[in-house]
Write a structure and sequence with these properties.
alpha/beta, 4 helices
Length: 176
Amino acid sequence: TGWDMITPEPDLADYKKFIMVRIEALNHALRDLPSERVRHHTCYGINMGPRTSDLELKHLADLIVTIRAGYYSFEMANPRHEHEWRVWESVKLPPGKVLIPGVISHATNIVEHPELVAERVVRLARLVGRENVIASTDCGFAQGPFHRRVHPTIQWAKLKALAEGARIATKALWGR
C-alpha cells in the first residue's frame, strides 16, 4: 500500500529494500507461530480510483513468498491486476505454501459470472498446483458508516458467484 503514497514515486530497488526490512521484522514477530496458521494479504489499498499507481505483483511476489506465512492473499480480480496470475510462471511457490487469489472484486458493483471465477481459479491452479489455491475476494468489503462501496445485496451476490465458481473449478481440477 505504501508505494502509491510516496511522492515522487520511489526507486523500485530502494522500495524493495524498504519492504525487506519490514518483512524481516514481520518474520521475527511470527517466529514462534506455525506458518500454516498465518495468512498474509498484500493490499493496494481499498479505493475506487484508477489504480494506475499500484505497484505490480511482479515486483513483489519474490519478496512476498519469503514472509513466514502458509497462505498468501492478493488481488487478481481487479482489472488492474487480473493479468498478474502469470507472475507465478516465473516465481516459484515454496513447498507447502498456498495462494489465496482474489477472484471477485471489492471495487465494482458488477457481479462476476461463476464461469469467470472458475477460469481465474483454474488458470492459476494449473501453474502452482490445484492443492495450492483457495479462491477468495480481492480484499474485504470493508465499509464505514458514511461510505458504501458495494451494496450488501451485491456483496452477497458476489460471494454466491465465488462459491459457484469454486464448485465449477473444483470439478474441472479434481473431477468432483
